[in-house]
Amino acid sequence: MKKTILKTISVVLLVAFMGSCEKPETNENIESIENTKPIDVFDQKAPNCYGQTRYINHNQTIPKGWVLISSTGSTWKIKCTTGAPYGAEIDIVPKSVIPSGWVLITDNDRYWEIKCVIKGRYKTKLNIVPNSVIPADWVLTGTHSNVWEITCVNKALYKSQLEIMPNSTIPKDWVLTRTVGSIWKITCTSGASYTDKLEIIPNSTIPKDWVLTNTAGSSWKIKCAGGNSRYGHELRIIPNSVIPVGWVLKRNVGSTWLIACTKKATIGKELEIIPNSTIPKDWVLSSANNSRWIITCITNAAFNASVKVVRNSTIPKGWVLSKVIHGYWIIKCINKAPFRGKVEIVANSVIPYGWVFIGRTPMLNWYIVCAKGAKPGDLLTIMPNSVIPPGWKRISASPTSWLIRYK
To answer: Could you tell me the superkingdom of the organism this chain comes from (predicted)?
Structure first.
């Protein structure tokens, strides 16, 4: 009997001891704060960590790409949303931040339910909580007392249409084409080709790469200036309307303006523009008078290519002033120059970085040579007292020249 009692007491004590060694239920799976910080570093190293959870102190900032799923006590639980597939759902703490690309589909005092809508497809519909944020690539297509209907516009084709609620935001690459009755109709402009046409509501926003061509009647006519447009194409537009990027104003006389396309032009191609208009990137002013300007394309110019420009023009990056002639200048391209590539420049011009002064021409201009691309041991002969570029060292000197060696 005594042995039985002692055995029973031993079992009870063993169970009690084992129970005292277990982790509290509230701390189950909790990792130490030291092992998980900084949490933002973890986020950067695991860009597709969707579904993983971490614990943070209640006073720590919730990093981008994570949501708060439990806020009990001083330790909060967060979950990663980065890399979530379309349609994924997560329950979060009410009134906590909803990440970009997610929508609120259920809200109550205990939890909020959010859904991932990233990479949705055209015409997909969802019901969300009224007055919650509508994400990019979605539009409001219906409102009821307890739910809003939103529809996806992502990957829609040119001329695709949707009916949306009045006064709702019109998404990028869509235009307002009808406002009759209790709905608005919008039309997709994405994927349009050069000269494609659409009619829109007057005073509505004209999308990027489209121009206004007619304002007569009950609608405005717009035409695509993007798509496959290229050098040589021209369009007539309404005076004082916006000229899209890649186009220049060629004529501004009469009831319409004439604009010309600069896109995909090659070196040496010319265009006539209105005096004092903006010269586009990779073009230079080659002729100017009171009635017209001529601009020349310098895109993808080869080393040593020459272009004529108006005197006192701004010399573009990668070019140098080679000659000064009565009425105009000659500039030369130094881009893609090989080691020891030689160019003539006007005397006393700024010598570009990585080039050296090696001598004078019969007309007293300067010759400069490219020192970039040299190999250890390569030599160059330069003019005395000229600047020695980084990585080079003078090894001999005479009254007429210096010899420099690379590294």
So the answer is: Bacteria
Q: Closest Cα partner for 275 from 244, 305, 251, 307?
A: 251
In a domain, 308, yes or no: yes
DSSP class of 301: P
Q: What is the tens place of the pLDDT at every residue in 104-145?
A: 999 999 999 999 999 999 999 999 999 999 999 999 999 998
The residue among 242, 235, 245, 163 whose CA lies nearest residue 197 is 235
Q: What is the DSSP letter of 238?
A: -
Using a 10 angstrom Cβ sphere, with 0-12 exposed, 13-18 middle and 19 or more buried, the burial of residue 347 is exposed
In the chain, the N- to C-terminal Cα span, in Å, equals 97
Residue 239 lies in a domain: no
The confidence score (pLDDT) of residue 226 equals: 97
In single-letter form, the type of residue at position 20 comes to: S
Number of folded domains that form the chain:
2
Would the CA dihedral through 206, 210, 211, 212 be positive or negative? negative
pTM of the model: 0.78
In a domain? residue 347: yes
Rounded Cα gap, residues 301 and 313, in angstroms: 18
Q: Write down which residue in 311, 336, 361 finishes a domain.
A: 336
Backbone angles phi, psi at 2, to 5 degrees: -65, -40
What range defines the domain where residue 282 resides? 265-336
